[in-house]
Fold each of these.
Amino acid sequence: MPSRLLKADIDVRLWSPASTPAGEPLPLLVAHDGPEYAALAGLLRFAAAQIEAGRLPRHRVALLAPGDRNEWYAANVGYARALTLAVLPALHKAVAVRGPVVGLGASLGALALMHAQRRHDTAFGGLFLQSGSFFDRRLDPQERGFARFTRVTRFVGDTLRHTLHPAPVPVTMTCGTAEENLANNRQYAAALADEGYPVRLVEVPDAHNYVAWRDAFDPALVDLLGTVWA
């Protein structure tokens, strides 16, 4: 999908349950770092298994490739506009979507979803954010070398100071107990709760990797999707 704002294409792979016509209305899960989630965390196998077991309704998964990840996902206003005003509408044209769209992402991909939801509050009906890079100057001095550190901390600070207009949707956050991001995830979850977001933080005994993110799918992702798509 071409984006004039990014001067680049956003590559999207759309998965549906077997024998599903494009015109059949189904819920939609949109995954940042989607190809990596599919290859390294078995996201599509997980979706198929939960559908087969009757734990989740039949749904589609849009796998968004990261592109220039450190630039696009780091609280980038242009990317948030491209995602919400171009990619999501194009997906709605490609297939019939039923109910609220849910976003899934890890690390900077989680941050980018939260940033998009804060700027375009009707785009997502729920968010599943894993090990989000909610950098804070006090908690994360080790990240100061990251080129977009200031842009990220400015956005996070706006949330902590409640200077952005909140439009709460259900949010589930997961983070490993061995991660540097644990403190900033705890802080960010508390800030969202103060603004009325139905937020849940799940801490798992692992680190910042796809194995940890995969292992947190059940029951946390199942619970969130069941709540939003009910």
Note: The CA atoms of residues 176 and 206 lie 5 Å apart.
Amino acid sequence: MTDVERLTGIVRGAPWFMAALGAGRQLGLAQWCIGAGALRNLVWDALHGRAGPPQLADVDFAYFCCDDLDPARDAALQRRLAEHCPGLPWEVTNQAGVHQWFEAHFGHAVEPLLSLDDAVASWPEPATAVGAWLDDTDRLHVIAPLGLDDLLGMRVRHNPRRASAHTYRERCASKRYAQRWPRVVVEEPLC
């Protein structure tokens, strides 16, 4: 079994995640996915033998559209997702516009992203730099530009592309990876 097949099996076995993907598909966007912490938590809970919906701070719905960078669009899409799956804590972000607010939020400027894959590759850890989307034929697609080794191997490493070592350490402390999932290995950043 390939890593993609293994991940696909975990996702398809989670009714709440499949419902979220179905809601995302209904938005009719060209490039989108649900990923980051929601997918990581689902996978790590499954690998730890935990059933049911995971504890979620948010469900990251990422999309890429250069034609409309208005933050009001994100809010409108978030409302539509909440109508389809009201029990989920949706967070919608147009990755094409991240460069417009990133410095104010994280303290340093970043270049515009080129695509959804480019955006996912910039997320803070390779284990969270994974997304999934559902096409019109119910085929599940995986976006994993940094691979699936860290996600399926339950390893947290720093992705220095956009997150500083300081930000990475803060994330690890706040996410409590090792406490929530005892088999997870958290690595110190190299820089």
Note: The first strand starts at residue 32 and ends at 35.
Amino acid sequence: MAVNLGIIHLPLGPLLQAELGVPTFVEHDARAAALWLSEQAAHGSAPAPASVAFLAIGTGISAGVVLDGTLLRGDNGFAGEVGHLVADPEGVLCACGLRGCLETIAAGPGIARQADEAIAAGRNTVLSRNPGAGDVFRAASAGDEVALEITGRVADHLTRAIRSLALTTGIRRIVIGGGVAAAGPALLEPIRSRILRECADSPLVQAALGDASVELLSPIEAPGARGAAAIARHRIGLPQREGVGER
């Protein structure tokens, strides 16, 4: 199922396997990336963290979670679909059929849509029609009021998603990736500042997130592709080669 592509049921693995004649496995890109991240850390200077969450923000939003060394898929295969948690019940219609899902606000198309709506409403902004999410973050960095309003809203909702991941899974390392992560500090710093504010307001949040690592992973790292290789290796039963996580 890939609602952003309009696909409800497509047996992609068996179709590819029949066409290519080789073992074929299909996995969620965010989950694959999370597995790669957990393995990559094992070859660094520090031991691998037992748990990591990869929050992918692109056309949609989802999370891949490795908890105590185990990749979470869930009994129904939908573990980590945080992009379809409802953030605004009165919001716009999501591709999944619900209104106001997180990804309608904080994913790339949702960010661009909010900018277009502001432009159509005659708001004073340096943004032009049909901007990308990157254009909005660049305008925010330059001090554009409309862009700052949009990116602030995005940061608010992503901070809540990160808090929810930390509180429901106990994870202390959250890595943000996907196309929107290319915004760099313009995306990360507002999230970090909001986390610090929440930690100051709540002893509970301080305990859960006070020493957590929230970091960005550049899209050029291709975590989904690297994770796909890790998934295939696991499914076939091949051992991980020493140093593979450092490449």
Note: The radius of gyration is 19 Å.
